Amino acid sequence: MGCPAEWFFCDPFGRLHALVLTSLGAVLPEPFPTIIVTVLAVAMATTIAAVIVLSETLAERKWVGNMQGRLGPNRVGPSGLLQPIADGIKLLLKEIIIPTQADRIPFLLAPLVTVVPALMVWSVIPWGPGLSVTDLNVGVLFILAMGALPTIGIIMAGWASGNKYAVLGGMRAAAQLISYEIPMVLLMMVPVLLAGTMSLQGIVEAQSRIWYVFLFPVGTLAALLFFIAGLAEINRSPFDLPEAESEIIAGFHIEYSGMAWALFYLAEYGNAFVVSAMTTILFFGGWQIPFLPIPPFLVFFLKCYLGFFVIVWVRGTVPRVRYDQMMRLAWKGALPIALILIGLTAVIVTVAPGLVG
Amino acid sequence: MVIPTAFLVAGGFYTFGLLAIIGALGVLLAHRVFHSALFLVMTLASVAAEFVILGADFLAMVEILVYVGAIMVLILFGIMLTPQQVHLPDIGSAGRSVAAALVAGAIFVITAAVVVTSEWPRSVVTPMDVPTTQIIGQQLFGPYVLPFEIASVLLLIAMIGAIVIARED
Amino acid sequence: MPTAAPPIYPIALQHGLVLGAALFAIGMAGALTKRNAITVLMCVELMLNGVIVTFVSFARHAASTDLAGQVFSIFIMTVAAAEAAVGLAIVIAVHRVRNTVQVDEVQSMQG
């Protein structure tokens, strides 16, 4: 039965979109209504991204706290709900200290190079049928490209800090990122091969018969490995050596304070949600749910947040892996399995195309 | 009314073209090698935007993924692993740089003059929404399958060669 | 102008070709002038990018939709990646032995 399109709450954004388009189209000549609607959609996506990222910071601290037998932040606002706002105000007002031997312009640009790709991914995420800021033909490749750019930002941050430990931290973080990029690229090709399209809406709609995670063994293994590689890509536990290096050697963002550090922090949580969203879109059917009359954007949001809960759960439970263990996992574990999975998927799609609908 | 769209497309082309050329000049004129590398990142990103405007969306994403995300990271690693003790000016003698600038300028002027004044056949502008990924895939496994296989072997050779050359033994 | 630019697509063939030529020329000036081997490599990458822009421009204005220019650009990127990898390996090996990356100091085989 699902959520029929006639009900208002099943597709409020679609109706809003149509309403704004027709009302603007009556007043302005052709390219301007589309431009204005696109700008509004981008603004809305950015706002949603910012709100979700802020709520994630609080959610993580509370959940990790509960896992460790303590309450999370509960002073600011009712049970700590205004904590992200307090954090934001503090970080905005804090001074950005630039060390003397730092390279000023790369030092200040590095957080931007890290954060902007993380935000640009939000423009292709499909929240419902036809509900994305834009639906690129090469959506999957766009997300991969935006996942490759923060590596440059991290190298810039490490080098421009003028601190030998920051350089080493930056290089190790960059090595981790590029090591896990390859299995992630290969594993993202598995749903692309199964769906026959690189557009994210197309992949979600191709899973209307069965979600790809249930296609044992190819889909399940691919989903699991993709999630692990995604965790490593966003420097989250158990792969958070670049951040936890503060225990041993300073990480790449040791010289950053104030808003510059806050941008790195936001980039990390934004990326966490994006990895969760990508796993949902590619393997767990995106905004689809059988039979229940829940609006698709709510289904998608809940699935992604559930994925984020798993990410936080993993962080609170699993100890950190050592650097050489992590590299060994990437090159000797994930990469061969990813190659085999792509080969298997290609064989399945060629030999039995009706199997996956 | 298509004129504003054309203005947007043309404006985008000129903007990113300008950014690409500024980045290229930055590669040439920057004092430190690291800054040259960052200017090259700027150029490559602008060129990727140019590809989108020229209708090559797959190529634009591959450019960012491969060039900026991998080759530039490699170059930045190389810069960080080979630190320079002295900040010498990066150019040879002044005479050499003048001669090189003249030669490069001459090549640019001659090429641009030839391009602008020659009689190109009346071009059929291909539509913007061809499925580039599918077409490139079919071409790579169709007429161009031999260069494709050779490129794979080339990459394998380069990988092995780079590991062997850079290895400490 | 002999090349017709229909009002819908305002970028004529010449624009893309001139941009490619400009990038190529700037890259060439750098490759001939610079002393640091890595900077020379970066200028070679600039030249290759100029060539790729030229190819994509031709693919855009070509008479057929088989996108040969874009297919060839993929090969150019492949070769550029391979060359950058091997080039940087050589630079690192030379730096390990000679402790320099200036191209005019590694000339013991010259003459």
Radius of gyration of chain A: 21 Å
Query: What share of residues are in beta strands of chain A?
Result: under 5%
Largest sheet of chain C: none
Number of helices of chain C: 3
- Gyration radius of chain C, rounded: 18 Å
Spans of chain A with pLDDT under 50 lasting ≥5 residues? Answer: none
Helix content of chain A: 55-70%
Oligomer: heterotrimer
Name the chain pair whose interface involves the most residues.
B-C, 92 and 80 residues
The largest sheet of chain A is: none
> What share of the residues of chain C lie within helices?
55-70%
Helices of chain A, by number, come to 13
Q: How many distinct beta strands of chain A?
A: 0
Work out the count of structural domains of chain A: 1
Approximately how much beta-strand content do the residues of chain C carry?
A: under 5%
Instruction: Decide which structural class fits the backbone of chain C.
Output: mainly alpha
Strand-and-helix sequence of chain C, N→C? Answer: HHH
The number of strands of chain C is 0
Distance between the termini of chain C: 52 Å
Would you tell me the overall average pLDDT of chain A?
A: 87
Describe the structure.
The complex is a heterotrimer of chains A (357), B (169) and C (111). Chain A has helices at 12-25, 31-67, 83-93, 104-120, 139-148, 150-160, 164-195, 200-206, 218-233, 241-244, 259-283, 296-317, 323-351. Chain A is mostly helical and 357 residues long. The two termini of chain A are 20 Å apart. The mean pLDDT of chain A is 87. Chain B has 2 domains: 1-101, Up-down Bundle (Four Helix Bundle (Hemerythrin (Met), subunit A)), CATH 1.20.120; 131-169. Chain B contains 6 helices and no strands. Chain B has helices at 3-29, 33-53, 57-81, 94-117, 132-141, 145-166. Chain C has helices at 13-33, 37-61, 68-98. Mean pLDDT of chain C is 86; it is low at 1-7. In chain C, helix 1 (13-33) packs antiparallel against helix 2 (37-61). Helix content of chain C is 69%, strand content 0%. Classes of the chains: A mainly alpha (357), B mainly alpha (169), C mainly alpha (111). At the B-C interface, helix 1, helix 2, helix 3, helix 4 and helix 5 of B face helix 1, helix 2 and helix 3 of C.
Question: What are the main properties of this structure?
Answer:
heterotrimer; A: 357 residues; mainly alpha; 13 helices; B: 169 residues; Four Helix Bundle (Hemerythrin (Met), subunit A); 2 domains; 6 helices; 0% strand; globular
